[in-house]
Amino acid sequence: MASTMMEPSQPNNRQLRRLETRRSLGEHALRLFRSQGFEQTTVEEIAAAAGVSTRTFFLHFPTKAAAAFPDHGERVIAFRARLSTGAPFANPLSHLRSVILAGFDSTSPSRLSRYTLLSKVPELRDEDARTDRDYEEVIAAFLVQHWGDEPEAVVRANAIANAVLGVLRATLVAAAGQGIDARAVTSEILGRMLGMPFDEPLHSM
Amino acid sequence: MASTMMEPSQPNNRQLRRLETRRSLGEHALRLFRSQGFEQTTVEEIAAAAGVSTRTFFLHFPTKAAAAFPDHGERVIAFRARLSTGAPFANPLSHLRSVILAGFDSTSPSRLSRYTLLSKVPELRDEDARTDRDYEEVIAAFLVQHWGDEPEAVVRANAIANAVLGVLRATLVAAAGQGIDARAVTSEILGRMLGMPFDEPLHSM
DNA sequence: CATGTTGGTACAGTGAGTGCAGTTAATACC
DNA sequence: GGTATTAACTGCACTCACTGTACCAACATG
Questions:
Q1: What contacts B64, CB < 8 A, 6 or more positions away?
Q2: Would you state the torsion angle of the CA atoms of residues A192, A195, A200, A204, taken in this order, to the nearest 10 degrees?
Q3: Contact B185 A159 (CB under 8 A)
């Protein structure tokens, strides 16, 4: 009966093995980064800890730093899905804000401890900023979809996307360092930044 | 009579030579990046073009990408100076905005063409984001100086700094790509983002 | 069972970046 | 003016992130 399934979502043994290798690499990478520092950890070590060859590491992650964010791809996809579905809304910016704040619920557990490491290692902050570009593109695309694609609207969409991600990065890093309620601060700042003013007619400079 | 000068600002021959080497390295780096691409250019080539050894390149720039922003250090210092001096102001955020907009005057000439290259080369975008952290620190320090250093104010200052730089980066890159008036768009967006609301009492979430 | 595909391996190579031990020439000091 | 210092630069050897290529063995699929 299983053979009648037509879903491509049924992972077979090969895919399972691949997933497991990737998971193991990510886990050992993070553990080693934490215990001996990012620079002091070589890719060779990570691969050895996961029981695979060095070359295999690079079949799973493009850079050493990327191994610290193994679920990045899925998260971006999930975020895009949350942005495009959901209740109908009048104002794209307030919808954006709601979706981002809702995302904080899934942020709490091990995510914050990752940011604790991240705030101390410049290379990982760089990697974080780099991966944030994917979110920026999603947000910019979402805004352009609502605002139209005239050059000025595109610039505006990218600027907002950058600003929003900047706020998120700064808040999460700071929150991980100290005992701040990241969600509350983000909520307030985004509320002010993205409040109604941006939905007035655009050409006002 | 020259011997009676006490200014440390009078550069001697050694310092002049160093400056000249650095300038030449930066110039050839940019030229080669443009003509053959960033990845296709090796540090060895850049150094050879400037007539120095490869080792010397790294005495001037910490990374290959840094050579595309040879005046970064001076610019940050100048920006901090502009932020801390100037006319007295009531609202730190509007002062920040004025200073940033004033900076656009010195941005026009070759700076924009640099962003044209930058918008096409991911490595240089990364480097740009990295160097932007120095500006972020300057802005955050400026805001903390006015808002106090309680944890929440610090988080807020960092968030704003990140957001402002995000807007600037996105706008400049987009402006370089298309024929947009970066200053006008930045002026409007920052105006809305940094408008008066932020100076109300802070604890309102 | 035959055949193509896929996750992983072995190996050799490139190039960025660093540590260290010089060399040369400008400068400071007496 | 002669000597000691120091600052810019060099040469060399090294590490390590990352890539291209050829290969193998397990698995999937008809």
A1: B29, B38, B41, B43, B46
A2: 20
A3: yes
